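The protein record minuted underneath.
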Amino acid sequence: MGKTALVVGATGLIGRELVEQLLESDRYDAVWIVVRRSKRWSHPKLHEVVGFEEMDAALPQIDDVYCALGTTIAVAGSQEAFKQVDLELPLEVARVAKAHGATRYAVVSAQGASLRSSFFYNRVKGELENALRVFNFRHLIIARPSLLLGERDSFRLGEKAAEVISRPFRSLLLEKTPEVAPIQALHVARALIMASEEGEGIEVLTSGMMQRMSR
């Protein structure tokens, strides 16, 4: 029998890559996603739950969780709304998934995540990482990517500008400073899935580590 995966944040940049790669993986017989609005994706292994409030009642037994939930303050509209998406929802997913048997939780955090960070975004990510440790998953995987590359549904001016500026130096950055080089979303997804093949305890994947895992 194959395993069952749960993906939240499935419509985002990394989430879409996770779903696609998990559906192709022989390790999983079923991939469940929780979305706010139905995507009507069609695949024999894919199952959809519409609405996070329906998650607990609708989910079956889960093995591995992949959490790629994330937004920006500009999109969310306020710091509190941002924390709802980037902190409270991932923790609620952890609670529900643990109750449904999950032993592995892989989460997309951020480079520089720290409770002591002077940046609100990184402090929230640090708070999330710290809070997830309390659930005592057999294997907690924390990915800390640098600037993400890929096709987004929404336009983010700051990220797009950074991507354009860094483009001429990308090869040099990858060679000399892989920790700060921009990273493709598909490489983050691939690294999370690779890390989920085995392991225990708390595993932190830096951006440079994920770059090397995808070579």
Observations:
- The chain has nine helices and nine strands.
- The radius of gyration is 17 Å.
- The beta strands are 3-8, 28-35, 46-50, 64-67, 104-108, 139-144, 148-149, 183-184, 201-206.
